[in-house]
Amino acid sequence: MDKIRYNRKIYLEDKPRAKARNEVLAAFDLSQEKEWIPAASALGRITAEPVFANVSMPFYHASAMDGIAVNAEDTYEAHEQRPLHLKMDEQFVYVDTGNAIPPQYNAVIMVENIQVIDDETIEIIEPATPWQHIRPIGEDIVQEEMLFTQGHQLRPADLGALLAAQVTEVAVVKKPLVTIIPTGNELVSADSSLSSGRIIEFNGTVFSNYVEDWGGNPYLHPIVKDEPEKIREALLEAVETSDIVVINAGSSAGSKDYTVHILEELGTVFTHGVATRPGKPVILGKIKDKVVVGVPGYPVSAYMALEWFVRPLVCKYLGIPEPERPKLEVKLGRRIVSTMGAEDFVRMNIGYVNGQFVANPLTRAAGVTMSLVRADGLLVVPPEELGYEQGDIVEVELYRPVEEIKNAIVFSGSHDLTIDLLSSQLKRQRTDMKIVSSHVGSMAGLMAIRKGEAHVAGIHLLDPETKEYNVTYVKKFLAGQDAVLYPFLKRTQGWMLPKGNPHGIESVSDIASKGADYANRQKGAGTRILFDLMLKEAGLSADEVNGYDREMFSHLSVAAEVKGNDNAAGLGIFPAARAMSLDFIPVADENYDLLMTKAFFESEKGIWLRSVIQSQAFKAEVAKIGGYAVVENPEPVYF
């Protein structure tokens, strides 16, 4: 068969997400199927029809206490001044909790309220009332009553009710089978050896677990190459065996994005492109009677598109409403710019600082998976908004419980590998606490403390005039505020260079004269301030350094850049260089300190944080990575 040549295709439209969702839901008209399964293993399943009790619970009159069963009328004369004696088997019998009540009796007296006279005689001083301490037939469940309607999601207690009513099998909605087809010539499995141009296929696993979490039955298809015939074959096979089909990648407008063409050939395309950021290149269509959802290759775009268009289909099939996340009002710590006409979905970090929930945006790049991993919530900017200003109060959808957010220590400022170790050690000692860190540079961290948007800031700001670290900057920018500078680490900054230092770089002058590609840190980072000082002392300008304007936001990012380019160089800390197997030439020793408000420093969280820093376990962890020394029993500096 001759190969078909497909022309690159632009988006059909920027369709509003709600309209696209409603159209695909209307097109999804599969009949719900049911299956019978053991009640004991039906947790989380959706009932396919009403469930009725087969027996009452209890199915006999049962004693609710340990004691004696009596006829209440036989006890009416009992009084503390006229104790009443009863004879066993004539006027009472002993019963334990749960025992059947003989038909001639209608009350139970607790064992604590009887006095044993002899083996056959007891004494009471209070009368019983009819049906006291007796569980009547059907007190809990009455035979033939409806336990659950159809469309009910079974919970742990529900399974107990089923078994108590002698319902041992239950009809549930069969889980919709969702086939997930990853596509791409560059994709390899996680256990493959990597080379340039190869990417680990992980979206399929994430999709599968989302589908399972929503109540579907996922099938992850083997990777399909970017070849039209193979994609066509996979789609035709999937629509025969599945209820819903998801195809990953190939949904955009690239030269090898074939999905929309093949969908048009085999069926119908409703939508190619929705008005969202991220997640725009979505394809919604139908082959035969099965809905096909084409989602982008970038992880964040893909996960959101899956939630927007696949979750509603699964819920419709199961006959349940879509779940909604709890929402929280937060104060924005930074300005957020959006584009008119498109919904913007911004992943947010949220902290609870000084009695206020403060939220800051994470990276908005559609390919950064960790922005979702680290996100505490999601801000949806409507298409009619151009964004929000710093300090605005907005509503976010929560990814984490409010209490978890409240208990977190919000860390801002310069990146350092020890902060992750500190968070881990803190979590070991206090399971309800953790550190949420944002790597924004020393100056931005200092300003976060000033604006009340963080609990702790890591800073290493060198004053070019005094050659003193941090104190000058705190005095200048936090004048009038009660702040505390806590000496934390002594660490070494140095040149991070490709293995073997092929260009013989030993100084800032070498970086300029030998044309190295410099991996710089962002404005306000302490490392950048140090580099700028070295440039100035060497009589050099930023224009003489290749790559000066390209910014990295962590030491590891700089190290990764150097590792991937034999002509690169960067300034950073030794552990980052070691992590990437780079050469390291020491340049300067520096103080990396923690800045806090006095209120936080003296709070329970602040005290816990300092105790962990000074613990032997934390110091041992820091010693393992090298290039550091934790300051022993430091004297805090109050401002």
Automatic annotation (TrEMBL):
Residues 179-316 form the MoaB/Mog domain. GO terms for molecular function: metal ion binding; molybdopterin molybdotransferase activity. CDD domains: MoeA (cd00887). InterPro entries: MoaB/Mog-like_dom_sf, MoaB/Mog_dom, MoCF_biosynth_CS, MoeA-like, MoeA_C_domain_IV, MoeA_C_domain_IV_sf, MoeA_linker/N, MoeA_linker/N_sf. Its cofactor is Mg(2+). It comes from the Bacteria. Its EC number is 2.10.1.1. GO terms for biological process: Mo-molybdopterin cofactor biosynthetic process. Pathway: Cofactor biosynthesis; molybdopterin biosynthesis. Pfam families: MoCF_biosynth, MoeA_C, MoeA_N, PBP_like. It catalyses: adenylyl-molybdopterin + molybdate = Mo-molybdopterin + AMP + H(+). GO terms for cellular component: cytosol. Keywords: Magnesium, Metal-binding, Molybdenum, Molybdenum cofactor biosynthesis, Transferase. It is an enzyme of class 2 (transferase). May be involved in the biosynthesis of molybdopterin. Catalyzes the insertion of molybdate into adenylated molybdopterin with the concomitant release of AMP. Belongs to the MoeA family. This is Molybdopterin molybdenumtransferase. It comes from Mesobacillus boroniphilus.
